[in-house]
Amino acid sequence: MENPHGNHSDVNESLMQAIVITRPLYSYVLVAFIIASLITIIWSIFGSIPQRIEGIGEIDTKRGLERINGAYGGEISEIRIKLNDSVKNGDVLFVIMRPEMKSRIQKMKISIEQLKQKKALIYSGNNKNTVIKKKVDKLGESRLKQKIKEINKNLLFFEKRISQEKEMFEKGLITYSQYFSTQNNFSSLQIEKITIEEQLNLISLNNEEWNLDINISENDISNQVSILEKALEGLIKNYKIQTEVTVKTNGVIRQLNVRLGDVVSSDFILALLAVDESKLKSYILNLYIPFDSNELITEGMDVDIQPFNIDHNLYGWLKGNVKYVSQYTSDRYGLLNDLENTDLIALIESKGAVYKIVVELKTDPNTFSGFDWSNKKGPPVKIFPGQLTLAYVNVKTKAPIDYVLPIFNDYFN
Predict the structure, then answer these.
(1) What are phi and psi of 80, to 5 degrees?
(2) Which of 349, 308, 300 is nearest to 329 (CA)?
(3) 14-66: per-residue pLDDT in tens?
(4) How far apart (Å, rounded) are the C-alpha atoms in residues 213 and 203?
(5) Which of 399, 379, 395 is nearest to 387 (CA)?
(6) Which superfamily, per CATH, for 50-64+276-412?
(7) CB neighbours of 89 closer than 8 A, spacing ≥ 6?
(8) 99-243 CATH pick, 3.90.1530, 1.10.287, 3.30.930, 3.40.390
């Protein structure tokens, strides 16, 4: 039918072209809600949420941290190490003052030096005296020997005279008194000769006795010096044992508890040494769990470890497995024996009774640290014994719906 005005059909045509049939927006929202609901239902049934128990602990090795302490107490006079230094068996780490022993050593050294000086003086004096005595004795011997020569000449003279006077006496040319007088003189000369020879022997004996006395005096001092030197050697050796704190094995210093000038007792722990640090497979975590935890922890459970100096949001969790679970609560002595860290012990004890779990760290040669991390790469830092951590033992996994159903059950009942 034709429009009398002639433009009716054109208007309808324009309106039809302007109207576009579209679906309502809520239909897309509904579809998205249905899809999200299906995903949520599927996840709540087939998904899993780990149930974890939190604990606090310290990374260690299977051999643990070795305690270093001195044999005797005293003031720390030298510290020859720094934190994280590598040390070898026999290295001297600390020197502890023992003033009373040092004083004894000094006095003994002075005594030895005094004896040596005395020996030197005696030796010097004896040499001078010996020279003088030898000169005197030599002069005396020379005079006595000269006298003996003269006596021998006189003896020969009197021997001839006695022989002549004997013949004259027998012939009656001289009296007996004259003959007897000559014999008397001869005998006197013989006695004088014997006396002089005895004097010569006495000089020789005196020389031998003099030399013997000198030797005895010098030897006596030498023996005293030798005895004191041996005693000094033993004292110095004992002094080193009492003052030098040495390490008995190779390792790395992971804790240093003293400063120069500190006065310590013999049972004070000067430092802690990590022994098996290079063997990554020997690394463990001493973890302490609240004793009132609701779930049972058993060997083999996975553990997520968060060292305090590493952000797990960036680098993930350090992975481990439970290797040992203690059946008893840990007392302060046990904590001190394992941790050697009074601040950490105080923090653990503030949470109440705890029991110990040993976690073995998983290794991965492809990471910088050498350990397995949840993000595969891990942080660009090394892990060392003594690092404090939080850790979470994954005791079991539950479907999300298991958390929701008890709520509905409690509501409707």
Answers:
(1) -100, 15
(2) 349
(3) 545 554 455 556 676 777 777 877 777 675 565 555 688 888 888 888 877 78
(4) 15
(5) 379
(6) Efflux pump adaptor protein, beta barrel domain (2.40.30.170)
(7) 247, 248, 249, 250
(8) 1.10.287
Q: State mean pLDDT over 360-380.
A: 90
Cα 332 from Cα 342, distance rounded (Å): 10
Structure tokens at 118: 């005395």
pTM of this structure = 0.50
Asked if 80 and 266 count as a contact pair (C-beta separation under 8 A), the reply is: no
Provide the terminal-to-terminal Cα distance of the chain, rounded to the nearest Å: 73
User: Per the structure block, which two tokens stand in for 265?
Assistant: 């007792």
Question: Rounded CA gap, 378 and 364, in Å?
Answer: 10
The CA-atom distances, in angstroms, between 360 and each of 36, 189, 198, 320, 372 are: 41, 114, 100, 5, 11
Q: 281-313: buried (b, 16+ CB within 10 Å) or exposed (e) per residue?
A: ebbbbbbbbbeeeeeebeeebbbbbbbeebebe
Question: Is residue 285 helix, strand or coil?
Answer: strand
Tokens of 10: 């054109």
Q: What is the mean pLDDT of the chain?
A: 78
Nearest to 286 by CA among 55, 67, 68: 55
Give per-residue burial for 322-360: e unless 16+ CB within 10 Å, then b: beebeeeebeeeebeebbbbeebbeebeeeeebbbbbbb
Neighbours of 272 (CB within 10 A): 21
* Strand segments (E) across 130-280: 244-246, 251-256, 263-264, 271-274
Task: Spell out the domain ranges in the chain.
Answer: 8-46, 50-64+276-412, 99-243
Which residue is it, tokens 């934190």? 83
Single-letter code of the amino acid located at 105:
I
Tokens found for residue 44: 């709540």
Query: Per the structure block, which two tokens stand in for 317?
Result: 């969790």
Neighbouring residues of 242: CB distance < 8 A, sequence distance ≥ 6: 70, 71, 72, 96, 98, 101
